Amino acid sequence: MHQPSLPHLLAEDPDLAGLIEAEAQRQHDKIRLIASENYVSPAVLEATGSVLTNKYSEGYAGRRYYEGQQNVDPIELLAIERARSVFGVEHANVQPYSGSPANLAVYLAFLEPGDKVMGLSLPMGGHLTHGWSVSATGKWFTPVRYGVRADTGRVDMDEVRDLALRERPKLIWCGGTAIPRTIDFPAFAEIAREAGAVLAADIAHIAGLIAGGAHPSPVGHAEVISTTTHKTLRGPRGAMVMSTAEHAARIDKAVFPGLQGGPHDHTTAAIAVALKEAARPDFRAYAAQIVANARALAEALVERGFDLVSGGTDNHLILIDLTGRGVPGKPAAQALDRAGIELNHNTVPFDPRKPFDPSGLRLGTAAITTRGLTEEHMPRVAAWIDEVVRAAAKRDESVLARVAGEVRDLLAAYPMPGWAPAS
């Protein structure tokens, strides 16, 4: 059953209700290792599904274009204040609809079309919106891309510095979507200062770790910080852009009216709830456990002969290179899904295969940590992954069915926030 329950949806639209119920059962029964997914609390779910979805609030608190904002303004101000407190920033905008629009707001605030922007190459672990060719950011601006070393899988900051001083970009991104190691924010800040660039830190994946003290913060180093509010932060599907006070006005103007109209007030409220949860001592323990689980899982995978990009992890994320294992990333990920282990195929640095059929797997430990799994479970998870990858290479479906049953048996003892099987 759902928390909150869905009786009206069930009565009004049983087809849709059935699909939602099936998705809840799926989330309950699978080891969810997609690095960008998590489970939110019932309180976040309630805020997301509240009557705030009925309201339109174009503008900012005290400066709206619609009346009836007596309650919405305090909600948004509460979310802003909690973001400032949790992350220690001078300014926060909680209105962006998701991570990509948040990053676009950074471009609009600081760049003109054609200006140079420097970011980690997508195949090396960067994000589409950091200037990749198929993104508007790679079409409207001039991309300058840095990568990682072939021998270490890590960013070489000396190479980044040389590239930045040669190309002189106006904006430098640090962060990305498949970076298993600690981001050296002070080093990026020094390079940006030398190059005369604005430094933007995209912390979408590690925001919860930063909030919980399990990863260094970019505050004091990057003038602008963008993030989603789900992933490790364990909030709703939304985003924020944070900055120094100096850049507050241009960030706000870029978000509205530059890129979007009215904010999603129900999401803003849910962000406020998630930030309150992130300020609690138990969230610090949660963030530390995410990292402990990831390191334990990485060690167990290495013991089973898996090749990990950079050799391991410092955060929640692990990137496996399956080259030499007899199966590419996509069929391996599909087999793992059938076996009750959810993750995604992913490009690895210097991947000889195409992006839609890459050599790697990306996984993260935020969601399984929310369920209550700890380091003691990670060798078993690694063993299942090993079994399934071997079975995928042999196309042995019997192994997949057995592992799926074992996964369900394990997870039955670890409740899922927001839903429980009917008793």
Automatic annotation (TrEMBL):
Pathway: Amino-acid biosynthesis; glycine biosynthesis; glycine from L-serine: step 1/1; One-carbon metabolism; tetrahydrofolate interconversion. GO terms for cellular component: cytosol. Its cofactor is pyridoxal 5'-phosphate. Its main location: cytoplasm. It catalyses: (6R)-5,10-methylene-5,6,7,8-tetrahydrofolate + glycine + H2O = (6S)-5,6,7,8-tetrahydrofolate + L-serine. Its EC number is 2.1.2.1. It is found in: Cytoplasm. It is an enzyme of class 2 (transferase). Keywords: Amino-acid biosynthesis, Cytoplasm, Methyltransferase, One-carbon metabolism, Pyridoxal phosphate, Transferase. Belongs to the SHMT family. Homodimer. This is Serine hydroxymethyltransferase.
